[in-house]
């Protein structure tokens, strides 16, 4: 222990701490100290984290585990051997978000992930429980419309474009021989050439898609949501902590996800049943049609409407239960609701396949009203959500919250836009592929064509905005040139070196411009979407004027934009999957774009069950159990949890799950942390100033390291009592401007990586370890938040 005190004195750390009766000196009774390392975006290996090729797994499995150096495997049994330094442990969780490159297909679920993010972006609000519940309800309804939209787009491609239009036209069917057996002209009136039977067969495509989404959601649900957190009683002042992340049931959303999965699966199956049954029912309602089939059609459609109403009721009825571990599961609802929808779908397929003499496929299936209603409903939900978010923000204003509390509605609008662009673009591309260069089919509904046409003007707007951001970065770079000279005063000037440092700092600030990018994009998307809806209605009402005068010019411009937009969708889809595969296989690519994906999958699936699974529902309980079992030992063990990047967010979330007594035995060291810069601004209700201040007040100590060259990490902006503030002064990057005896080779610009290379890291870690002691410190007053 004397060696530890001597080393602490060398770095200027006071080995006394403030106890209830005054300063207390560290004693020999202090237990073994543990440093729990949590890596960030991109993942790593335990060998790299522990700087030792020989590591052993202490606890965990192949997915996520805690490792130690082989020589420290039994450190608890040899406490005297670790008096002069902590026992390092590495929690490796990268397999929760990366792995087989086929998981890049999860990127296709991006709209669902984005709308789930909007649920967690609500503003901070106290004593407005009904308004908060209304906010969550609106987001869940927006998520439900995305499921219906995706399945309806699959119905459009399979039922309308392929089975109805292309198979019904001889020229189109002959170009695609695989459709020949469905065409009455090619197959000479074969059994499958009946329009209803063609639709019933094609319905297998959207049904299989719905089944695939159900399977993926259920498989990940059993692997992630079933991981039970450490049980504990809720604290009496749980609501006053400033965040709900510490509630016992926050990381256990098993019941809600199961309910939503059943509801969304049912909605998808009912959408397929409606697409098949409505086409046959429309034919049966013609004058002189068979009365029996007409009656069956009305009964089928009434059953589908009743089922849809029940699905909406299920989605609206129950939100998240966080105040306790909800062990119940609505078995009857979860099992019977999709089964009932499957029975309705089977009846719709039998009904559509009934023999109907004289029924021929012509024109389009009646899909225009469906897509128009979905687009209108999504726009209305986003507008109402914005009003609710504004009311919540006015209740408890947070100047650091993005877009004055409207971040959630803006992101929800982006989710709806992604769904609309994907459905419209894919439908347009499939129609172009089936039709070739001819005009044998009518193509997708007019609204989907107009939605594809908004892509080019939106891209032009984004290019202009990116140009403006580049100009701002260039101006900031010029300002940073002088600051770099002041930071490295007395060094020989190297203009190229100075420009590189200044450019890196300027580019790192672009992260803070993301709210502007989201605001412009979502606003433009809302306006362009309204224009697309109006254009589709105008085209339907005035088709004869589309080739004359002004209408002809508008029609030609729209066709050009539609063709360009459909091609851009195809190229974008290829790039999307390619980048996704690279992100899972290439660590450098993952560090570049992985932060956005890891932010999206950090949050539980509260609004959409088909979103990618929440890795934190496994990682946070893992860390909580490890910290609690260590700090509750009788020999006065100490713990520093050290988190980098996204690992700092996991560390904070796990610390909130501890009891107050356990939190007093924990010190937190964060570096390259997005806790305030990203999470605090985008998720103010959970990581806002009050939440971070309460966390700091309940910990023994918290220190944060950041660099001006880091595009992700930043200060947490809190005062402190184990230093002048939680934040240490921004670290120099690079460590040396030119060659020095300590750095004979040029020091690299590290940015977001390798914080351990800075001597400040070891100094702050030593400061935290010396400060901790076996006894529980006296309570401290909660610090005020810096503006």
UniProtKB/TrEMBL annotation:
The chain crosses the membrane at residues 134-154, 199-216, 262-283, 295-316, 337-354, 374-393, 405-427, 447-471, 514-538, 561-580. InterPro entries: AB_hydrolase_fold. Coiled coil: none annotated. Residues 1-30, 226-246 are annotated as: Disordered. Keywords: Membrane, Transmembrane, Transmembrane helix. This is Integral membrane protein.
């Amino acid at each position: 222990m004397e060696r530890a005190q001597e080393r602490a004195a060398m770095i200027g750390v006071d080995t006394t701490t403030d106890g209830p009766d005054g300063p207390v000196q560290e004693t020999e009774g202090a237990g073994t100290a543990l440093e729990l390392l949590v890596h960030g975006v991109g993942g790593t290996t335990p060998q790299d984290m522990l700087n030792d090729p020989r590591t052993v797994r202490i606890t965990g499995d192949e997915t996520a585990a805690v490792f130690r150096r082989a020589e420290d495997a039994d450190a608890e049994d040899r406490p005297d051997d670790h008096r002069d330094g902590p026992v390092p442990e590495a929690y490796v969780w990268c397999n929760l978000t990366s792995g087989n490159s086929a998981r890049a297909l999860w990127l296709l679920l991006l709209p669902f992930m984005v709308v789930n993010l909007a649920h967690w972006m609500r503003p901070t609000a106290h004593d407005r429980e009904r308004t908060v519940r209304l906010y969550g309800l609106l987001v869940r309804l927006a998520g439900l419309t995305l499921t219906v939209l995706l399945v309806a787009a699959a119905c459009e491609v399979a039922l309308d474009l392929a089975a109805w239009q292309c198979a019904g036209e001889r020229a189109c069917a002959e170009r695609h021989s695989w459709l020949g057996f469905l065409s009455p002209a090619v197959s000479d009136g074969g059994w499958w050439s009946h329009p209803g039977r063609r639709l019933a067969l094609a319905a297998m495509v959207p049904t299989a898609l719905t089944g695939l989404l159900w399977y993926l959601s259920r498989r990940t649900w059993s692997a992630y949501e079933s991981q039970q957190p450490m049980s504990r009683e809720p604290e009496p002042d749980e609501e006053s902590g400033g965040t709900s992340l510490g509630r016992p049931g926050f990381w256990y959303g098993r019941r809600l996800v199961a309910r939503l999965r059943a509801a969304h699966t049912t909605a998808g199956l009912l959408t397929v049943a409606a697409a098949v049954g409505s086409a046959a029912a429309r034919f049966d309602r013609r004058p002189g049609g068979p009365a029996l089939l007409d009656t069956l059609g009305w009964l089928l459609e009434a059953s589908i409407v009743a089922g849809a109403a029940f699905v909406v009721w299920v989605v609206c009825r129950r939100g998240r239960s966080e105040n306790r571990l909800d062990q119940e599961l609505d078995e009857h609802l979860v099992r019977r609701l999709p089964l009932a929808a499957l029975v309705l779908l089977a009846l719709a397929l039998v009904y559509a396949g009934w023999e109907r003499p004289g029924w021929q496929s012509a024109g389009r299936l009646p899909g225009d009203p469906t897509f128009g209603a979905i687009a209108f409903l999504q726009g209305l939900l986003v507008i109402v959500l914005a009003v609710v978010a504004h009311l919540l923000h006015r209740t408890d204003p947070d100047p650091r919250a993005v877009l004055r509390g409207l971040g959630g509605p803006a992101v929800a609008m982006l989710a709806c836009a992604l769904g609309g662009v994907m459905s419209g673009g894919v439908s347009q591309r499939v129609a172009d592929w089936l039709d070739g260069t001819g005009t044998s089919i009518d193509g997708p509904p007019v609204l989907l064509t107009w939605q594809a046409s908004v892509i080019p003007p939106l891209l032009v707007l984004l290019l202009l905005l990116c140009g403006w951001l580049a100009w701002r970065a260039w101006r900031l770079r010029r300002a940073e040139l002088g600051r770099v000279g002041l930071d490295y005063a007395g060094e020989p000037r190297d203009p190229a070196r100075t420009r590189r440092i200044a450019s890196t700092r300027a580019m790192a600030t672009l992260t803070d411009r993301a709210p502007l990018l989201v605001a412009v994009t979502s606003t433009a998307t809302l306006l362009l979407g309204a224009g697309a809806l109006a254009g589709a209605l105008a085209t339907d009402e005035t088709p004869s004027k589309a080739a004359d005068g002004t209408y002809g010019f508008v029609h030609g411009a729209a066709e050009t934009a539609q063709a360009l937009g459909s091609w851009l969708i195809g190229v974008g889809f290829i790039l999307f999957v390619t980048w996704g595969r690279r992100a899972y296989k290439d660590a450098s690519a993952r560090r570049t774009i992985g932060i956005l994906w890891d932010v999206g999958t950090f949050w539980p699936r509260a609004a959409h069950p088909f979103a990618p699974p929440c890795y934190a529902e496994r990682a946070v309980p893992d860390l909580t159990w490890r910290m609690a079992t260590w700090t509750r030992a009788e020999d006065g063990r100490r713990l520093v949890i050290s988190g980098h990047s996204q690992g700092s967010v996991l560390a904070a979330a796990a610390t909130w799950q501890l009891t107050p007594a356990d939190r007093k035995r924990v010190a937190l060291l964060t570096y390259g942390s997005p806790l305030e810069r990203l999470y605090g601004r985008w998720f103010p209700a959970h990581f806002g100033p009050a939440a971070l201040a309460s966390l700091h007040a309940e910990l023994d100590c918290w220190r944060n390291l950041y660099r001006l060259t880091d595009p992700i990490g930043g200060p947490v902006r809190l005062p402190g009592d184990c230093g002048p503030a939680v934040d240490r002064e921004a670290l120099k990057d690079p460590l040396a401007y030119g060659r020095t005896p300590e750095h004979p080779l040029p020091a690299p610009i590290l940015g977001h990586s390798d914080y351990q290379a800075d001597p400040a890291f070891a100094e702050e870690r030593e400061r935290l370890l010396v400060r901790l002691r076996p006894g529980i410190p006296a309570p401290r007053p909660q610090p005020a938040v810096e503006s």
